[in-house]
Write a structure and sequence with these properties.
Length: about 260
């Protein structure tokens, strides 16, 4: 979705696979849980199935909340999707807080939310994508440099921009979108780990170039992970929307929390 919106080009044809699990588990965190590269379904590391808000860190016992004595908690700036700062986005943030992280949820739409993707997109087109990016940059100026930038769909634009261009970024979590690294620089910063999540049949993620961009990111970056889920829903991670898919969202929760546990 974001690739097409940002570059206004026709999505590239699918790249041929370079074999199962391109990147493997070598070179640091490089990893691709992508069924297209590992056979239908691929290996599983599912863990729990609880919905957003019910998870704790996979490395911690039930009910555990990480403390400063156990390690520095990750600080996250989570940018909302095209329908705004919904209750579902707030729930996602709360689940990450429940695992001991500090999570900020800036509102790039100044209090407005939208019932449908089309309504939200109309608002974004009225604002302009440049305005969305600049609002994201202005928000980041209010936080310390050492944060993890996360975004959902539209929110990936400011999250990825800041992860690539703002010195000191600790990591990036790109949910349901990814744009080519070349949009914001020559290469992904070596010191910035990144996770990408999306559905293999989502017309926005898989059909408009985002999945291709994510595969290229994983192939070219030592500390990158790509998780591809079966399904055709966009905004499947937001529990307040009809597009919510609880099983896949549960895996996203677990994997993001595990990723944040590794941020120090």
């Amino acid at each position: 979705m974001t690739t097409k919106l940002l570059t206004d080009v026709v999505a590239r044809p699918p790249r041929p696979s370079r074999g199962p699990w391109s990147g493997g588990l070598t070179n640091g965190r490089r990893r691709s849980l992508d069924p297209a590269r590992a056979g239908v379904g691929g290996p599983r590391d599912d863990g729990g199935r609880a919905p957003w808000g019910a998870h704790r860190a996979a490395t911690a016992p039930p009910g555990h909340r990480r403390t400063p004595e156990e390690g520095t908690m990750a600080e996250v700036v989570l940018f909302h999707h095209v329908q705004g700062l919904t209750e579902g986005v707030r729930t996602i943030a709360e689940s990450l807080r429940g695992a001991g992280n500090v999570v900020h949820t800036p509102d790039l739409f100044e209090g407005r939310t939208f019932a449908t993707l089309d309504e939200g997109m109309a608002h974004v087109q009225e604002l302009g994508f440049g305005t969305v990016l600049e609002r994201g940059r202005a928000v980041a100026d209010g936080y310390d440099a050492g944060v993890v930038y996360a975004g959902i769909s539209l929110g990936v634009l400011p999250a990825q921009m800041l992860a690539q261009t703002r010195a000191g970024a600790k990591g990036a979590v790109l949910l349901e979108a990814c744009v080519p690294v070349s949009e914001f620089g020559e290469a992904w910063p070596d010191a910035v780990p990144v996770q990408v999540h999306g559905m293999d049949g989502d017309p926005s993620f898989a059909g408009e170039g985002d999945l291709d961009a994510a595969r290229e990111l994983v192939d070219s970056t030592p500390d990158a992970e790509l998780f591809v889920y079966p399904g055709d829903r966009h905004l499947f991670t937001d529990p307040s929307l009809p597009s919510y898919e609880p099983e896949a969202a549960a895996l996203v929760t677990e994997r993001v929390i595990r990723f944040l546990d590794g941020i120090r």
